Here is the input.
Amino acid sequence: MGEAKRTRVTPTIYDVAGRAGVSIASVSRVLNGQGSPRAETRMRVLRAVRELSFVPDGAARALSNQLKEVVGVVFRRGSEVPFEDEEESLLFIDVINRGIEVAAQRRGFDVLMSSVGIREDGVSTRVAAIAGKADGLILHDRMLSAAGIARLAESVPVVTLAGRPSRVSINVRCDNESGMRALIRHLVTDHGYRSLAFLSGHPDSPDNQARARVFEAQAIACGAEIHAAAAWHGDYSASGGARVIASLLDEGRILPRAIVCANDQTALGVMHALARRGIAVPNEVAVTGFDDVPVARHLHPPLTTVRQPIQELGATAFEVLHSRINGSAGRRDVVLPVRLMIRESCGCAHQPSPLPAPAATVADEA
Here is the structure.
């Protein structure tokens, strides 16, 4: 008779701990990226993992912690037909989501991504269904009302992006206020532009509202004339920015000396529409954006804008949510610093200028 086949024993975390000469808790901290294990401990654990060909049982770990090891991410589409003619407006969202995904992978989590239409019925029901499949949710701008978020937070931890903090949810955003103030001071004080317009994004977007509010206050304080009526309402997309400019010119309106756009995609459309009408940027009309998406520096002329750490915004949102999932207490508003990027579209030579701003802050709510 042939020799009986030997049953291969799958190595366990106990085997790793024995081989490395450390505790089970130390192995767990190294493998889960938790705490601050000593470099020598980490090296011994990882060596043991390699020698034993140990594969952490994510399903078992999740079961013991009663976790799915999944986070849900929900964002809004710009049109009723999914992703039709709106690829440019997804640039910002894509970079944020990439940050979430990278941070999640480091923690051994998967990401469940979903989109909903701006005017879609049953958004709350859709989001609640996603929450049932995840350990926590990250909601992009303008997803749910404060009451809707409060109801959702009764079942899972919730982090909002570019929204407003609440007593039951954490908000992660960039410093709109200092960025817009620095931009307006540059246009009015450094360039001497006396007529400025704000081409807005979605009216119910907290980011848009914050930028519009600071634009108006800072421009008035600097003695500039402002244009911010309904004719200047955009929708955060390049096509929306182009439509606003075409409509104003078709009506025979005189454009202001500088157009401050709510985001870079809008600025891209504005510059395209001005070029089609033979209006030179920045010699006749200066144009600025907000975000500093990768394409901004490659426009002609390169775009003066406020740089948000977009991918870090997503990564931070995940890390904050991960802490909350693991029982971290506290209600926080996380604010990331921004930087004014001076390029040619405002009338300057290319010279990035750091905006004085504090490091990321975590402010406890009252």
